[in-house]
């Protein structure tokens, strides 16, 4: 925990390209002659610069320089100013497409696959989206483009006038699940259920324990019996058919502050301020009508009764759900008590985890700041086979996600002003990372600074300057817990996982090297990152370093490195020894340590002390970190 807390990363989406329209007649030839893409400009600039600089260089140096220039031109991470958010659909698109579906509605519930979701690979897992009370199946419209790249995605559409019972909806999904499992038995099936859909997903999982299912439950309606929504059922039954009522209006009729808040939440959350600003008055006027067409009085009454039966059925089968599940809950859901329900479900589902979106309302997937794919990647919830492979199932960050990472660590970089020095093959030390090998496998072995302060500047610079993603060997507590307790929530380590960290283990190390990755290893581990007063720059390496043998097996280059500057930016004032003298803190440290996996239990000396704690550090700013990367050590031909 303490070794990683200091350099938290954040996340986002990917790059959007832009293009202009050319003119006509003579304007066409002129624009065609003058227009150049960004890549062409970069290439032209590189060629021009090279023609001047390369005079007097040896052929080997010219080759190396051109290689570096080509790497920079092809690096999508190097220019943060050009990174913009991926072209996601807007709330306006949701209402427009809902309007088209409602207009041609009829028939039984059915599956459809969005056009934006056709770019997935052959080994992509199947994702079945089960809608909430709206029933359109368009609840993930803002995520279709990114989901379609990593999933074979199907959406369930329940027509407005359809009156299929909950039990029959479960059977419909179950038939699809079983059919797809028979067709592709080795790929997992993701059930993403929103509200009502969450109850369907739970029932399907309970009825099919033999199928490899992964559940993602967004504000599931299992808490319906404790919500104010059920108060609407008797009111709707008494209302005459002549009154044209919809959900927002009905909530306004019911007395009680919680429901008035629910009405406000529906309006605010469906029409967030940043979205309202880009909608025309005609769009705004048309949205209530779309909602009324989507949930007329008789449909709303049916859906509420459906929610009631769905909640009862799902709750009665929770004991039989043994599959992996992620519960996505909103902190400001005024329709359902989702945050409290998430805790209840977490205690009842043995393989579940919670993701809390504190500022979000009930309609989670329609909000601007929610990115489902990023959440999946950060939580390492994506797998293509029966078991998660931390190496082969990893999906690198998009340029926009990387930009968010840089923004969240801007203060660390500004405070440390990192300088990186590397060593060329001829032994010359240069500023920058020109001496770092481009092709893997490469193993970086170095000293772990207090709290891992050196990580963020290093990993960011490698990706920006050399387009090299350095994948760290990390402590298992960043990925799972032995039991729940006082440890930081796993979400605190999201972006380490997003940047490719893997739990320390022999098999993971083997897979990284065999896949020609750039691997970051700290032999001193947690003991080195949580050192005591007076132990600055002291190594706590085990007597036997097996990483050399493993690196030699794959002919990996070993790059030793060191970092100085820790004492320039902070002063350790409250260390492990100080804390262990206080009985309450001593007990707290013991509890934290028991929650995480213990490493090096068979080692001798201080390296075996893996007690988890957070030292107290006083900042001394500004300061500077200096990184020195030694000459790469060749292991090719030294296999033993």
From TrEMBL:
InterPro entries named among the record's database cross-references: AB_hydrolase_1, AB_hydrolase_fold, DAGAT
Gene Ontology CC annotation, any one: membrane
Keyword presence, Transferase: yes
Ranges of compositional bias, category Basic and acidic residues: 57-67
Stretches for region Disordered: 46-67
One GO term (biological process): triglyceride biosynthetic process
Keywords from the UniProt entry: Acyltransferase, Transferase
UniProt keyword annotation of Mitochondrion present: no
Signal peptide positions on this chain: none
One Pfam assignment: DAGAT
GO molecular function: diacylglycerol O-acyltransferase activity
Domain AB hydrolase-1: 162-368
Family classification: Belongs to the diacylglycerol acyltransferase family.
Protein name: Acyltransferase-like protein At3g26840, chloroplastic isoform X2
Gene: LOC110426868
